[in-house]
Amino acid sequence: MRKLLSAAFLCLFAAWGAMAQTLVTTKTLNKNVVLEEYTGIHCTYCPEGHAIAASILENHPGRVSVIAIHQGSFAVPSAGEPDYRTPFGDALAGQTGLQGYPSGTVNRHIFSGSTTALNRGDWTSSSETILQQPSPVNVGVETSYNPVNRELTVHVELYYTANSAVPSNFINVALIQSHIFGPQTGGNAGNNYEHMHMLRHLITGQWGDEVTTTTQGSLVEKTYVYTIPSDYNSVPCVVENCDVVVSVAQGHQEILSGDVVPAINGTNLYVGDITTAGPTMKLGHPLELTTFNCVANSNIAGTNPFKIKLVSGAPPDWLSSFEVDGQTVTDSTVVDLTKGTPKAIVLHVTPGFTPMFEDFVLELSSVNNPNAPVKYFTANVISNVHTLLVNAAGDNYATQYQGVYIDGLTAAGCDHLAVMKSSVFTQATDAGILSELFNIFYNCAWTFPAFTDAEAIAVKDFMDNGINFFVAGQDIGWDIMSGASGSHGTPETQDLYTNYLKASFIDDGSSTNNKLIAKVDDPIYGTTATSNIVDVYGGYMYPDQISPLADATTIFYYNTTLTKIGAIRSIKGSTKVVYFGVGLEMVQNTEVRNDILNKTYDYFMEGVGTGEKTGVAGSYLGTCFPNPAHDFTTIRLSNIDRAMVVEIVDINGKTVMSKQVMPGTKQIGMNTAILPAGLYLCRIMDQGSVLETKKVQVIH
Question: Theoretical Cys-Cys bridge with 274: which of 56, 92, 117, 377, CB 3.0 to 4.6 Å?
Fold first, then answer.
């Protein structure tokens, strides 16, 4: 039995102050993602899609809803199997243009071509795009549930911060259920696979409940009452495992935004936020204070208590705290916030010597509304980093295999390494916090798109400014240059491939490209041993066959006859470039891939800063980083077996800075902010004798 009630009222912005609105805010927010995932129990690769969806959820708390729609031939149950289909799936899938499973739509948006359907490899990058866009409507949701009669009440509030592009919008209310255990081909769980976010019913019908007042300043409130049956298609509906997804669409297509709450006493009440008018990403230096000036705002009428908590995974030698109401807090505190009266908060971060790119998150939660979602403010600080590992953000394979690079670079002596995703890399580039980099290692693994336009533009800018670049991953060439259906080549990415990587794409490759053989006369990699290339992607093995363009040279082959090229290197201006058509995670021999990373790092670091290879420590003085130095430089030390003195000497031979170092000291910091710009010598002294010197340039 189904019962549906709808009551609505609309108002103009002029009357807003008289309304008793409690859920939404009137400020413009960015869109939330609604990922509709088309799946089925007999779809071999659908568990991979489920994992990608789960990763998107995890990486964007409070910003993403997933609806798993069992539909199509793979969803047809065999004898004795449960039927997870709904009456709505075929019509929903019919307007996507999907051609395979798993497929999905992100806000039913057309990203390219003429259809909304996306391959699973495109879900992450497409979600990142949507999350950056302002929404014309804020969506508020709260639920209540009566277990006696299984009656679910869903209260929805919409506030339009801008005019909708079309006058008619539709509210969609979906009931989804998680923790349903049943059969699934793939996933290695047999008949005990845990299905999540499964669509059980569309409470507002196939295409939603129409809203016709969609101009800026309009408030829409609607209440829906629905009696939840005990089962759908004989599959029990456990309300405790159910959520409600509410979204707003233009017609039957473009979803403007949405949100998800538990079916029992759920709410997405917008309690307030922590914001800053300044940058959220900053470049720090060891032992120097970095600050973020923020304000906390309440969206709840009157004065109410809020908990503010600082969360970070920074290493012990990094210090962080925040200041509010005259107190310094390292963990959490409760403060009173009054709606309309911002409260100042200052976030303090003092990096240690451990190289790091780190998140510092301030969490804001309402004490009186514990079911309301926590609001997050994230600040980032990077410090003491000259080599950056960038993981392609597409489908998380890169993150899965990042240890291959971290282990290899660490073994190579790279002690100024940090890691970030490519989506964050573009933000960090725009924020100007990567000015001290020497090298970028780009881990594409098996990701689509291999590069977005924004990523390609950022990479090209760094390469134009002398930053060395290494990239590896299968299907990079196919994705950018093949023009095949499902590929993502654009003028920007093709320019990167041809004019910066200096590569020509020859062939998609196959399992026959199963060896990595060094070109023996190459001065950098010629002595690298041979390794097998193995399939780590469950039947998807496509090591790209490539060819060097002018000014590039071959460094590795796939076959013993040396006719299939797998990797090349080149120099663009002062930038050293290395490109592998296969991911290092597919190189079976750990020693070989570590040797590749070691040789690459040594090759990149040769000549940095002082005219000698600074990637390998000298007898006493190692790398001075950054060099050139702005306000601070870190000097790496080795073999300090007695008390010595490190001095900074100007061009006239005058000692302008001096520090004593004790046995076992590994590094010291020098405050170069107090020095005039110019060229200096860093030298280590033992009882008045100069043991070793390095050049250090100071710029301001």
Answer: 377
DSSP code at position 544: P
> How high is the pLDDT of residue 109?
98
Confidence of residue 590 (pLDDT cuts 50, 70, 90): very high
Q: At a CB cut-off of 8 Å and minimum separation 6, what does 363 contact? A: 307, 308, 309, 310, 311, 374, 375, 376
Q: pLDDT category, 539, cuts 50, 70, 90?
A: confident
Residue 394 has pLDDT above 90, yes or no: no
* Dihedral sign computed on CA atoms, order 114, 118, 122, 127: positive
What per-residue confidence (pLDDT) applies to 612? Answer: 35
Place of tokens 């002018």: 550
Distances (CA, A) of 17 to 12, 21, 312: 10, 9, 39
Tokens of 647: 């001095």
In the structure encoding, which two tokens stand for residue 369, read together?
């509304």
Confidence of residue 681 (pLDDT cuts 50, 70, 90): confident
Phi-psi region of 432 (alpha: psi -120 to 50; beta: other; left: phi over 0): left
pLDDT higher than 70, residue 228: yes
Beta bridge partners of 245: 174, 260
Q: Which two tokens stand for residue 553?
A: 């040279």
Question: What is the distance between the alpha carbons of residues 344 and 294, in angstroms, rounded to a whole number?
Answer: 6
What is 434-481 written as a DSSP string? -TT-SEEEEEEES-SSSS-HHHHHHHHHHHHTT-EEEEEETTHHHHHH
Place of tokens 């159910």: 242
Q: Give residue 619's pLDDT.
A: 67
Task: For residue 631, give Cα distances in angstroms to 86, 384, 465, 625, 682.
Answer: 62, 12, 21, 11, 15
| Residue whose entry in the numeric block shows the structure tokens 């088309």 | 38
Angle between helix 46-59 and 123-131 (nearest 10): 30
Are residues 99 and 28 in contact, defined by beta-carbon separation less than 8 angstroms? no
| Interval 180-196 mean pLDDT | 95
| Residue labelled with tokens 């193995």 | 534
3-class secondary structure, 489: coil
For residues 517 and 560, the answer to whether their CB atoms sit within 8 Å is yes
Which class for 376: exposed (0-12), middle (13-18), buried (19 or more C-beta within 10 A)?
Answer: middle
Is there a contact between 178 and 198 (Cβ–Cβ < 8 Å)? yes
| Residue 383 in this model has a pLDDT that exceeds 70 | yes
Given a contact cutoff of 8 angstroms between Cβ atoms, the answer to whether 555 and 522 are in contact is yes
Q: In a 3-state reduction of DSSP, which class is residue 582? A: coil
Report pLDDT for 434: 94
Q: Which tokens hold the place of 390?
A: 């960038």
Residue 142 near residue 36 (C-beta atoms within 8 A): no
Predicted model pTM: 0.83
